[in-house]
Amino acid sequence: MKIVSFNADGFKNLKSVSMIPSSDVNIIYGENAQGKTNLIEAMWILSGARSFRGSKEKDMIAFESDYARLTLELEDSERRQKIEAVLSKNIKERKILLNGVRQRYLTSLFGTFKCVVFTPEDLGLSKGPPENRRDFIDLCISQIKPAYSRTAAKYENVLAQRNALLKNIPFSPSEAASLDVWDEQLARLGAYISVIKYQYTKKLNIFAGRLYHELSGGREILNMKYRSTVYEDLEDRADWQDGLYKEFLSALEASRADDIKSGFTALGVHRDDVVVTVNSVSAKDFGSQGQNRSAALSMKLAQAYILYEETGEMPVILLDDVLSELDRPRREFIISKLKDMQIFITCCEPLGKLNGKKFEMSGGRLKS
Ligand SMILES: Nc1ncnc2c1ncn2[C@@H]1O[C@H](COP(=O)(O)OP(=O)(O)O)[C@@H](O)[C@H]1O
Ligand SMILES: [Mg+2]
User: Fold this and answer.
1) Which domain CATH number covers 256?
2) 306 belongs to a structural domain
3) Cβ distance 2 to 316 under 8 Å?
4) Which of 16, 38, 89 to mutate to test the pocket of ligand 1 (most atoms within 8 A of CB)?
5) N or C terminus: fewer CB in 10 A for the chain?
6) pLDDT digits over 311-362, tens only?
7) Ligand 1: residues within 6 Å at CB?
8) Which residues touch 75 (CB under 8 Å, ≥6 apart)?
9) Per-residue confidence (pLDDT) for residue 368, from 0 to 100
10) Mutate to test the pocket of ligand 1, among 9, 11, 12 (most ligand atoms within 8 A of CB)
11) pLDDT value, residue 353
């Protein structure tokens, strides 16, 4: 999948950006605070995912404007597609079109424009808090199965209701009876999500493991395993409608008294993690910075490869300021592993040796 053209106006500081990218490597360079990341973010939100910077939709519109207009034309092995978005401070005027057909939300676009974004924060994927790895796996799966993001959102919703109830029970003990309803729903959703995340992590381990092995010159072994807070072992288990559901439910029941005390649900997919080891030792606790960077790089590249394998479309790669953070071998490795994909790279200098179509970003405008 390739971007054929991209236009942005009034998205944060971007002004009349009109880009005909190369189908290969594109380098967007310029000084700080000129709009390079804004450009990457504008492309990314057209994939239907949440902003990687956590920006809310209303904050994406330029301070001095009422609208942000974005247009993206895509070409894949089968057809050309067009995404158009007009974001407005007046929500009634928001307009999102996919091939001319009106969509309700930006998230309704999920699944059309396949891309992988890589930012400096992602370099801490193996070392950072478990939440980062949970969100990463959730996003990877949602890109392959758009319906999964709704299931994950339902789980979060049920969890929030259960937690609210838990906090209320000390003041109103009779409400404890209604926990059953939430437990049942949480267990149904949780059992399913556990299986899906376990299986995705297994695949990620295979792909990332191969990449890491090569990156370390064959000297080190990366391993990744999904660690559930509910299940001992999920290998060869898929009975989420039956056995796994029941086990989830019993785990919730067993921790109910503690949960009431703490006002929080202690077990569930919201507490699970992906344990990353290098040569059998925890990368998070004992890995060097280099090992953790290689692990993160391998995980992100694996995300792109799996997306390609599962959907048959090569994703577009957005590298925001990561190359300048990496040493030469890692930089060359990542570029070599992304050949055949369309890449957008942002950086401060035009990265001398790297070939590609160059664009200079200055004051929210693009010069090519
Ligand atoms: N809603 C907005 N309207 C106008 N400008 C914005 C908005 N949000 C952020 N900016 C501006 O965007 C600039 C940062 O752009 P960014 O893409 O992060 O720069 P960089 O080129 O360093 O990646 C800042 O100057 C900031 O003030
Ligand atoms: Mg930036």
Assistant:
1) 1.20.1050.90
2) no
3) yes
4) 38
5) C
6) 999 999 999 999 989 999 999 999 999 999 999 999 987 666 788 999 999 9
7) 12-13, 30, 32-38, 59, 62-63, 361
8) 1, 2, 4, 81
9) 67
10) 12
11) 73
